[in-house]
Each structure stands twice: as structure tokens, then as C-alpha cells.
Amino acid sequence: MKSKSFVSINDLSREKILSLLETAEKFEENPNREVLKGKIVGSLFFEPSTRTRLSFETAANRLGASVIGFSDAATSSATKGETLKDTIMMVSSYADVIAMRHKLEGAARYASEVSQVPIINAGDGANQHPSQTMLDLYSIKKTQGTLEGLKIHLVGDLKYGRTVHSLLHAMRHFNPTFCFISPDELRMPEEYRLFCKKNNIPFTETTEFNEEVIADADIIYMTRVQRERFSDIMEYEKVKNCYRLTNAMLANTKENLRILHPLPRVNEIAQDVDDNPKAYYFQQAQNGLYVREAIICDVLGINI
Ligand code: CP
């Protein structure tokens, strides 16, 4: 019953992270390697997705595998009341590996315990999005030449943002300095601030987002305020347009600064930033293909 799943970034050592990034570099050189011919990848998206689902499915296709699954749980028997356990038990009897996104925190861990095949967490509620973190690390390393000793500014929804939580955990291996920029309502949760303190990771916090605050950043990691995570819509309305990065704000930033965003964006990055060479979010999403090829091969024990 036990298989090698990819559930949480916390499960990965520094060496494992670096090894996956090396494999992803090989896939960037040549994404088309038919090492999964005859394999079937299950793609179960109980929550909406563009980048994660399509890059996992593209990765499977470029590796020579076939894909089964759904992009809308409304078309699955979950609507008839089928449990997650039963769904996973069924699909794991058809597929060789399953990439799954689910709204419940812990759903991926649970699925990995009942599945006959590896589960890859493609996002579980506000908890983790570890394949996103791997592509974030890949993008940081590629643009900065290193993961070590960088100043990383996390901006926006630091409360519900699973991508910033996973990135913070992963960066503990690489001596970062963080600046947390959020409105009070979306402040980085205490458990992550405590995590930084316990791991001697320096951080500052501010509600201000301006030229002065971003002047020394190596990476600005923008996030969307996620309407789907709020139970009270009035709370969302209060903070939805809290910050907006504009091209003018980048005039005095470091030469090698890069702007990342897991996407989708709404208003938090103005369109006029897109043509600035410091904007990297579309390339970042493209890097997801190479990283996800590496992850699928890794959980299936396939070396390239
Ligand atoms: N970054 C990310 O998870 O995007 P999608 O929701 O489109 O998959």
C-alpha cells in the first residue's frame, strides 16, 4: 500500500531539493524524453487550476505517459457523495501516479495513506503547494545564480497563501532574510514567524509597500488576495486591493531583482510591469513544466 509520495516541502532535505532542481535543469535542456511510455498519470483537480494542472498534464505527455482524470469535481462521482478515500482507491487502481488538488488541508497526506500509487500534492487548501515551491526555487536559483543568502520580500496575502508558507519552509536550508509585507488582516501567521525564530531566519514585517521598502530586495514575491479563502466577503472587500506593484516603483531597485508571482494575478501587479526585464512570473510558470517532469519521474523512481 505504501508508495513514495510528494506531499509536503517539509519532507524534502536540502540535498533532495537540489537534486530535483538538477533533474529539472536537464528537462529544460530537453523536455521531450519518453521515459514514461506505457504509464498513466491521474490528474484529479477538485479545485480550479490553469498552470498546475496543464503543466502536470503537459509534463506527462512530454514524458510519453497518458493522462486520465478530471478538472472539475462536479463531473466526478464526488457529487454523488463518494468519499475522497474511495475516489483515490479507485483511481490508484487505474493510474501509476496521481497529481491531486483539493480544498481540504491535509487531503494530499490522507490520499497518500490510502493510495496504492504515489500522490503528488498539487495544492491542499491553505496548507501546501510543494510543486509550486520547487518551481519557485528553480526560478530563484536560475535568476540569482544561487539560493544562498538572498533578501526575499513576500507581499500580499501571507495569511492564507500556501505558496508563501511552503516557500518559507523550503528556504530554511538557504540562509534567507525575509521581509513580510501585508495588511494586518493578512499577516504571516504566528506559526511561521515562530518557525523563522527557531531556525534563526531574520525577518522584518511591515504594512507599507513602497519604493523604499523594496529597494534592497533580490526577489519580490507578489501574491493574490484569494477571495476563495475568505468566509466573510466583507473582510475580503476590505483588503482585496491592498497593494499594487507598478513599473514606476521599480526604478531604484537592484539590477538583478526579479519579480515572482505564482499566478493568477488580479490587480496586484500592474500590466506595465510585464515588459520590465525584472518581471519573471511568466517564465516562472513555464519553469513549472521542467520541475513537474522531475517530480513525476522522482516519485516513480525513474532516473534520467
Ligand atoms: N500557481 C498556481 O497554482 O496556478 P493555478 O491555480 O492556475 O494552478
Verbal overview:
The protein is 36% helix and 14% strand. The protein is of the alpha/beta class and 304 residues long. The mean pLDDT is 95. The protein has 2 domains: 9-128 and 286-299, 3-Layer(aba) Sandwich (Rossmann fold); 131-285, Rossmann fold. The strands form 2 sheets. Strands 7-6-5-8-9 form a 5-stranded parallel sheet, covered by helices on one side. Strands 2-1-3-4 form a 4-stranded parallel sheet. It binds phosphoric acid mono(formamide)ester.
**Regarding CATH, which class of the largest domain?**
Alpha Beta
Strands across the major sheet, in which order?
A: 7-6-5-8-9
Residue share in β-strands: 5-15%
Overall pLDDT confidence: 95
Put simply, the count of helices is 10
How many domains? The number is: 2
What is the overall shape? Answer: globular
- Structural class category: alpha/beta
Roughly how many Å apart are the termini? Answer: 26 Å
Q: How would you characterize the largest beta sheet?
A: 5 strands, parallel
Would you give the CATH topology of the largest domain?
Answer: Rossmann fold
Short description:
This protein is α/β, with parallel strands linked by helices and 304 residues long. The protein has helices at residues 14-29, 51-62, 84-91, 107-114, 130-144, 162-171, 190-198, 211-214, 233-239, 281-299; strands at residues 40-45, 66-70, 97-102, 119-124, 151-155, 177-181, 203-206, 219-222, 258-260. The longest helix has 19 residues, at 281-299.
